[in-house]
Automatic annotation (TrEMBL):
InterPro entries: Class_I_gatase-like (IPR029062), PRibForGlyAmidine_synth_PurQ (IPR010075). GO terms for molecular function: ATP binding; glutaminase activity; phosphoribosylformylglycinamidine synthase activity. It catalyses: L-glutamine + H2O = L-glutamate + NH4(+); N(2)-formyl-N(1)-(5-phospho-beta-D-ribosyl)glycinamide + L-glutamine + ATP + H2O = 2-formamido-N(1)-(5-O-phospho-beta-D-ribosyl)acetamidine + L-glutamate + ADP + phosphate + H(+). Part of the FGAM synthase complex composed of 1 PurL, 1 PurQ and 2 PurS subunits. It is found in: Cytoplasm. Part of the phosphoribosylformylglycinamidine synthase complex involved in the purines biosynthetic pathway. Catalyzes the ATP-dependent conversion of formylglycinamide ribonucleotide (FGAR) and glutamine to yield formylglycinamidine ribonucleotide (FGAM) and glutamate. The FGAM synthase complex is composed of three subunits. PurQ produces an ammonia molecule by converting glutamine to glutamate. PurL transfers the ammonia molecule to FGAR to form FGAM in an ATP-dependent manner. This is Phosphoribosylformylglycinamidine synthase subunit PurQ. Keywords: ATP-binding, Cytoplasm, Glutamine amidotransferase, Hydrolase, Ligase, Nucleotide-binding, Purine biosynthesis. The keyword tRNA-binding does not apply. It comes from the Archaea. Pathway: Purine metabolism; IMP biosynthesis via de novo pathway; 5-amino-1-(5-phospho-D-ribosyl)imidazole from N(2)-formyl-N(1)-(5-phospho-D-ribosyl)glycinamide: step 1/2. The keyword Cytoplasm applies. The active site is at C93, H227, E229.
Length: 268
């Protein structure tokens, strides 16, 4: 099973993501520069695509906007074929921003520049880098979280533009659509798993309905603001030095577990 980790100038979480994926048997991940897909690589050779975190193209215009525009103009048809062939897509932080900007998320109109959602500047108006809790909300459609049984996951965020918002005049209708389609995957919560109710810092950016991650209607395209690759090993936990016992793995691994399990069941 081959997974493409797509990077451009400003991407900075590609190797952390590769390390996480390469810990699984039968998974071969490869960091690929976007221009390589024009030259000697073919997206259809892969079963999975990950757009990792970072500050693609310096986050000029808006976070993820330039990267998204390049994907639409250079890879639009390949992405469509990739999805039609059953390929899965994960966007982490900047990758989530890219998926929103391409319209692949929420996925109401396919790949386009007409997304009904955005990831806006944090309400705190500052870069938020902290460990947060998220509550799994998906009822089974998202293939990246089907194996998760925990009620509360602990992972870090690191972003300036992570406030999930919907088109204002259609906000209520779109939120209802996301819920009915089972597209809401993670919501920010407190340590006990109670919804953050937009309280800071439990909700670090002021996201609508505390949304931290969504999937498309098929459940095969998923984006989230927290970094699971930075919460893969127990030694990455912020309090590992004060723990009597440090777990081998942290909560972020659960997302990769579900991802790899799906690939094994469908492509092995």
């Amino acid at each position: 099973m081959k997974i493409c980790i797509l990077r451009v100038g400003g991407t900075n979480c590609d190797l952390e993501t590769k390390r996480s994926l390469d810990s699984f048997e039968d998974v071969e991940s490869e960091v690929v520069r976007i221009n390589q897909l024009d030259d000697d690589k073919n997206l259809l050779e892969y079963e999975g695509l990950v757009i990792p975190g970072g500050f693609s193209y310096g986050d000029h215009i808006r976070a993820g906007a330039v990267f998204a525009n390049k994907i639409i103009s250079d890879l639009g048809e390949e992405i469509k074929k990739f999805a039609e062939n059953g390929g899965i897509i994960l966007g982490i932080c900047n990758g989530f921003q890219v998926l929103i900007e391409t319209g692949l998320l929420p996925g109401f109109h396919g790949i386009s520049r007409r997304s009904k959602a955005a990831l806006a500047i944090n309400e705190s108006a500052k870069y938020e880098c902290r460990w947060i809790h998220v509550k799994p909300e998906n009822r089974g459609s998202c293939i990246f979280t089907r194996g998760i049984e925990k009620d509360n996951l602990f992972m870090p965020v690191a972003h300036n533009e992570g406030r999930f918002i919907l088109q204002k005049e259609e906000e209520e209708k779109l939120l209802k659509r996301l819920d009915e389609n089972d597209q809401i995957v993670f919501r920010y919560s407190d340590e006990e798993g109670n919804s953050a109710e937009k309280k800071y810092p439990e909700n670090p950016n002021g996201s609508t309905y505390d949304i931290a991650g969504i999937c498309d209607p098929s459940g095969k395209i998923f984006g989230l603001m927290p970094h699971p690759e930075r919460a893969f090993y127990g030694l990455q936990l912020p309090d590992w030095t004060s723990r009597k016992e440090v777990p081998k793995h942290a909560d972020g691994k659960l997302i990769f577990d579900s991802m790899v399990d799906y690939l094994k069941r469908n492509f092995r």
